[in-house]
Amino acid sequence: xxxxxxxxxxxxxxxxxxxxxxxxxxxxxxxxxxxxxxxxxxxxxxxxxxxxxxxxxxxxxxxxxxxxxxxxxxxxxxxxxxxxxxxxxxxxxxxxxxxxxxxxxxxxxxxxxxxxxxxxxxxxxxxxxxxxxxxxxxxxxxxxxxxxxxxxxxxxxxxxxxxxxxxxxxxxxxxxxxxxxxxxxxxxxxxxxxxxxxxxxxxxxxxxxxxxxxxxxxxxxxxxxxxxxxxxxxxxxxxxxxxxxxxxxxxxxxxxxxxxxxxxxxxxxxxxxxxxxxxxxxxxxxxxxxxxxxxxxxxxxxxxxxxxxxxxxxxxxxxxxxxxxxxxxxxxxx
Length: 334
What we know:
Layout (H helix, E strand, L loop, with lengths): L1 H6 L1 H26 L3 H24 L2 H23 L7 H11 L2 H16 L8 H37 L9 H18 L3 E8 L2 H8 L1 H17 L6 E6 L2 E7 L3 H18 L1 E2 L2 E2 L2 E7 L6 H17 L5 E4 L5 E3 L3
Helix pairs in contact: 2-3, 2-4, 3-4, 4-5, 4-6, 5-6, 5-7, 6-7, 9-10
């Protein structure tokens, strides 16, 4: 439970805001019945039911987008109904809702919900003692929404930057190992659901340490960025490249197996042989390839590809080793 809250920002926001709303509204719902105002009490209970339903849906399905939208709609609609039932005393419930919506849905959706809520409450003339009070309420609600919009926009921008820094390799611009773990989990789940074949390629530059030692890390960095550029220009948009560490990369290939996979690998090997160079000459690569087996874990899949790569390097480098279905390894023709 704590792991999900730590790693799913939207779920944590929905949970915290939902619990806060439940704790804040429940005492008032009880008070309404005690004071002999059952209509307002049932309205509060209806709002609480909607909040609980959205929380349960988010936790069971993991669909935080729909649950966030539902929760934002419930609290705004509830605030309008409370204002209609309670009159002037109920208007104040809209203000926390005006801020909360920006944490649950996109900024423009939150702005539309807030505007609709304010206009709906302005249409209830009995909720105000005078036109001046109504326009004062509208002005303050607009200011609160505008401030919340600015804060939400800045928060979203900063979060996207942090996510980019956490998932992208700064040198090559490809996804890093953290992103790879997430994408491989998704690929394995999709393979089980649809039967689509997935191939995993572990790629290592041959004698890369010598390039750094002789020509410096600047040249080595240029080789890595050139490698990424060549791979991205010679693979499909659906293929994904990750930097595994150092000069080692992982390439995820969906929808290829058999002769098609071997053809793809042979072509990629030839491209790198001909076009990947440094001041001392061409740079070669070793490849370990493994097809995802039915029911296989991501850890096992990675291990088989890594073992194939190790055998490719042991066999003299500059070659492709396929881990076949029986767990044996076969070398692709150079």
